[in-house]
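Batch job 17 of 40 flagged for manual review because the log was empty.
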Amino acid sequence: MWLIAVLVLALGLGLFVILTYNALVKLREQVDGAWADIDVQLKRRHDLIPNLVEAVKGYATHERETLEEVIRARNQAVSAEGPEAQAEAETLLGGALKSMFALSEAYPDLKANQNFLDLQNNLRDTENQIERARRYYNAIVRDYNTKIRQVPSNIVANAFRFTARAFFEIEEAERTAPAVDFGSGS
């Protein structure tokens, strides 16, 4: 009788470990996939920026410092790795882009340039996709981090070295930034 009880207990414990481990692996893979989605959108954003800078350069030749800051911030964002470093770099890039878009207010011909307007629309769409991808990523990270910290799954998580993941958070200044939309012609 004791042997059966020990075997049932061992089988139950083994099943618990396997199911918990598989659930943690699934969540970890979802986190990695969600981060890959953010990375794709950030690359798209980074690829648009040189075209925007070139469009602005033709109209705002004496605004070289602002344009160079945008390129510096873009290069830093391209080389950033991981959610925390990427979020910091993207915040700097967002600030630099706001400065560049503020220039368009001083150059009516630039505001009316179809190429510039198309690039702005593409950037706006990309920003929306980044926002959606960021929300999804942070939700998956929340679920994953909760699972590895809750009892009893934390025992399996610690045994197999599952570690918490960082959220992709933005700076407070980025949260209150006005939308980029100069196409209204006002």
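Reviewer: the log was empty due to a logging misconfiguration, but the result itself is present. Residues 24-167 form one domain. Unflagging and moving on to job 18.
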